[in-house]
Write a structure and sequence with these properties.
This protein is mainly beta. It is built from three helices and 34 strands. A four-stranded antiparallel sheet has the order 1-34-33-32, with no helix packed on it. It has a four-stranded antiparallel sheet with strand order 2-3-4-5, with no helix packed on it. The chain has a four-stranded antiparallel sheet with strand order 8-9-10-11, with no helix packed on it.
Length: 512
């Protein structure tokens, strides 16, 4: 697993394999210049099936609350919810057996989910302590591969390397009632030219689980194995870096930022494959009902993208919904805005037409051309975008931070973007009041302030309009200054700021 931290530089080599077989979406002023699939499809072509057998809309029949009781329905949006309107920290004394905490999230039943690398924890309203779940409960952690998986060779039992790579869980996000999504680290061998293709022995590693709580307290776990919709040759997306679940605008849509591209899932539409002769899993009536894989803005190394040579793409740690429900994505080299469409067989297949905005190509240096949010020396240089969010006025915000400590990484700081007004730039220390330049994560509060998470110096709350700022450090409401992830639950009022740290989990309802 030692290669995971150094994957980014090797991705430049990986992109050649990415480009050689299936059409990649190059975000630029013209439609994708890539070539169509030239590989050999091991089964029927992806769109050879009948009409979509799934429901026609992207969300559940009723996106609102079902009741206010305790029978598994949602508790309802708005109001204080079942948790204290106070700041609460959870750690070893509350049943969390290991550290660090890598994710904190709530579902639509207001279950509180916490993840470490090696376990998933659940605290239901009224419970005294967290309940721990691991690979013995169905999670696909290291050494717990999936019992089976679809593949170019048919159904494989057990799934080869169909499990997380060490250290295990990378990210979680709460979903519908009694539901959480668990993302994992995947394994790459950058010395293999076929990494992420159908001959890669680790093509099924990593991925994500849809986890639902059964009435008896056990888990139902469905593994979502990401594969390119238009060819079973490509299994590029392995490690999950960021997930966003839409509770409000297009209810129950899930977006997953990975080490290669960004996927859209409609989990409520999940269903097993149809029986023969319609059982090829990439048919429109099967996997494409509930999965759309994958899109990404791209740049090319030190040149304009006129072909697919020198592509730079991936490490999509910034994933955020705008006010209309379209999706901002921000990665190591580029960023863009993907327009929403309900049909998952269409979402991925629109080429350059998927993007309402694309930042990075062509870029001519010195902030001229299509800058990749920030202004690196040349196109294809690292900008290391770590987060994206949208404030209530429709402004999109991006953050940059050193992720791997590799040559070329720079803390570019914070950027804002508004259509027709362009970019503005802010220094994390001078303007926002942070104690360090590195921005690990970022989100917008309903009142217009930004929450900035630092890897070593806690949280900073910054109002870009007034300039006011406040900090939250270890001992002042959070258990540790090392922040790994922040989320915001706006299903309750006041909203709940959920903070994952090296030393425990915190839910903040009262902010300075």
């Amino acid at each position: 697993m030692g290669n995971v931290g150094k994957w980014a530089l090797a991705l430049a080599v990986c992109c050649a394999a990415c480009a050689k077989g299936h059409e990649e979406t190059v975000v630029k002023d013209v439609v994708d210049s890539g070539t169509p699939d030239s590989g050999t499809d091991a089964g029927a072509v992806a769109d050879a099936g009948g009409d979509d057998a799934g429901p026609q809309d992207a969300g559940p029949q009723d996106a609102g609350p079902t009741d206010g009781g305790t029978d598994g329905g949602t508790l309802g949006f708005g109001g204080p919810g079942p948790w204290p309107v106070a700041n609460v920290t959870y750690g070893y004394a509350d049943g969390i057996n290991e550290m660090p905490v890598v994710g904190v999230s709530t579902d639509e039943t207001q279950n509180l989910w916490v993840a470490t690398n090696s376990a998933l924890y659940l605290l239901r309203p009224g419970d005294a302590k967290f309940k721990r779940y691991d690979g013995n409960d169905g999670l696909h952690l290291p050494l717990f591969p999936a019992a089976s998986c679809d593949d170019s060779q048919g159904t494989l039992k057990p799934c080869p390397s169909g499990e997380a790579a060490a250290p295990g869980i990378s990210e979680i996000v709460g979903g519908g009632p009694n539901e959480v999504f668990v993302g994992y680290y995947g394994y790459h061998d950058w010395n293999r030219p076929d990494d992420g293709t159908w001959t890669d022995p680790w093509r099924h590693s990593g991925k994500l689980d849809r986890v639902r709580l059964n009435k008896d307290g056990s888990l139902e776990v469905i593994r979502f194995d990401m594969v390119s919709n238009n060819s079973v040759e490509f299994w590029h997306n392995k490690t999950v870096w960021k997930m966003v679940y839409d509770h409000f605008i297009h209810p129950h849509e899930l977006y997953v930022g990975t080490d290669h591209g960004v996927d859209k899932f409609s989990p409520d539409k999940w269903k097993p494959n149809d029986p023969p002769p319609n059982n090829w899993f990439l048919l429109k009536n099967n996997a494409q009902v509930w999965m759309s894989d994958h899109l990404h803005p791209e740049v090319c190394y030190h040149k304009q993208c006129t072909d697919e040579s020198g592509l730079r793409l991936g490490d999509f740690r910034g994933v955020a919904l705008d006010l209309k429900g379209d999706l901002w994505v921000a990665g190591r080299w580029a960023a863009g805005l993907i327009s929403w469409v309900a049909d998952n067989s269409v979402w991925y297949s629109r080429g350059g037409g998927s993007f309402l905005e694309g930042f990075g190509d062509p870029y001519y240096g010195n902030c001229s051309g299509s800058r990749p949010v920030f202004c690196p020396p040349q196109e294809g240089d690292i900008v290391s975008l770590t987060a994206a969010t949208v404030t209530k006025d429709g402004t999109t915000w991006f953050a940059s931070g050193i992720t791997y400590g590799e040559p070329g990484e720079v803390n570019y700081g914070i950027a804002s973007f508004f259509p027709r007004k362009g970019f503005n730039y802010f220094d994390p220390i001078r303007d926002a009041g942070m104690a360090e330049q590195n921005v690990k994560d970022m989100l917008a509060l309903p009142d217009g302030r930004l929450v900035l998470a630092a890897p070593n110096t806690g949280l900073t709350l910054w109002d870009p309009v007034t300039g006011k700022r406040a900090s939250i450090r270890a001992g002042q409401g959070i258990p540790d200054d090392g922040i790994l992830r922040i989320q915001l639950d706006t299903m309750v009022d006041p909203p709940a700021l959920q903070v994952a740290t090296r030393g425990g989990a915190t839910v903040l309802r009262v902010l300075p």
